[in-house]
C-alpha cells in the first residue's frame, strides 16, 4: 500500500484517472450536500423525531403509570372485597350464634311449658283421682251401711229401718274400722 500512495502523489495525471479518489468538485458538492442534509435533518427531522420519541416515552410512562394506578385500584378493590367478605362471614357467624341462642331459648321455653303442662295434668289427675276416691268411698260407705243394717236386722231379728239409728250405727262401725288403734289391736 505504501507503493500505491507514493505513485498517487508522484503522478498527478494518474490521480484523476484513479476511480477511488474523487474529483475536487465532487468533494465540494458532496460536502455541500452533506451539510444541507445535516442541516435539514438537524433542524427539521431531529426535533420531530425527538418530539415523537418524547410522546412515545410519555405514552409508555403514562401507560405504566395508568397500569400502576389501575393495579393499585384493583388492590384497593380486592382489599375492600376481602374486608366485606370477612364482615359478611362475621355477620353470618353472629347470626348463626344468635340462631343457636334463640333455638336454645325456645327449647328451654318449650321444655318449661311442657313441664308446666305435665304438672298441671298430674295435679288435675291427682285431683280427679282424689274426687273419684272420695265418691267411691262415699258410695262404698253407703253400700256398706245398707248391707250392714240389713245383716244386723237379720241377726237381731228386728227391723232397723230408722234412718237416724241406722246412720249412727254405720258411722260408729266405720270409725272403729278406720281408727289406727283398732287396726293395731287386730
Characterization of this structure:
It is found in: Cell membrane. The chain is mainly alpha-helical and 186 residues long. It has one domain (2-185). The chain has five helices and no strands. The chain has helices at residues 2-10, 12-17, 24-156, 163-178, 180-185.
List keywords for this structure.
186 residues, mainly alpha, 91% helix, 0% strand, rod-shaped
Quantity of strands, as a count: 0
Order of helices and strands: HHHHH
Low-confidence stretches: 11-15
Radius of gyration, in Å, reads 67 Å
Distance separating the two termini: 167 Å
Q: Count of helices?
A: 5
Our estimate of the beta-strand percent is under 5%
Global mean pLDDT:
82
Helical content (DSSP H or I, runs of 4+): over 70%
**Classification by helices and strands:** mainly alpha
In terms of topology, how is this protein built?
Blueprint: H1 2-10, H2 12-17, H3 24-156, H4 163-178, H5 180-185
Helix pairs in contact: 3-4
Please summarize what this structure is.
This protein has 186 residues and is mainly alpha-helical. Helices cover 91% and strands 0% of the residues.
Amino acid at each position: 500500500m505504501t507503493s500505491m500512495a507514493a505513485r498517487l502523489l508522484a503522478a498527478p495525471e494518474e490521480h484523476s484517472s484513479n476511480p477511488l479518489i474523487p474529483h475536487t468538485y465532487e468533494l465540494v458538492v458532496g460536502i455541500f450536500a452533506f451539510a444541507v442534509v445535516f442541516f435539514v435533518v438537524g433542524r427539521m427531522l431531529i426535533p420531530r423525531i425527538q418530539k415523537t420519541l418524547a410522546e412515545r416515552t410519555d405514552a409508555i410512562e403514562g401507560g405504566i403509570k395508568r397500569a400502576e394506578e389501575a393495579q393499585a385500584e384493583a388492590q384497593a378493590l380486592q382489599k375492600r372485597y376481602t374486608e366485606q367478605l370477612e364482615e359478611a362471614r362475621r355477620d353470618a357467624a353472629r347470626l348463626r350464634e344468635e340462631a343457636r341462642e334463640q333455638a336454645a331459648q325456645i327449647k328451654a321455653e318449650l321444655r318449661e311449658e311442657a313441664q308446666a303442662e305435665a304438672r298441671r295434668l298430674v295435679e288435675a289427675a291427682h285431683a280427679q283421682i282424689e274426687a273419684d276416691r272420695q265418691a267411691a268411698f262415699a258410695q262404698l260407705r253407703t253400700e256398706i251401711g245398707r248391707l250392714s243394717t240389713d245383716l244386723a236386722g237379720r241377726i237381731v231379728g228386728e227391723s232397723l229401718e230408722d234412718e237416724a239409728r241406722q246412720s249412727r250405727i254405720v258411722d260408729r262401725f266405720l270409725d272403729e274400722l278406720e281408727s289406727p288403734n283398732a287396726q293395731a289391736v287386730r
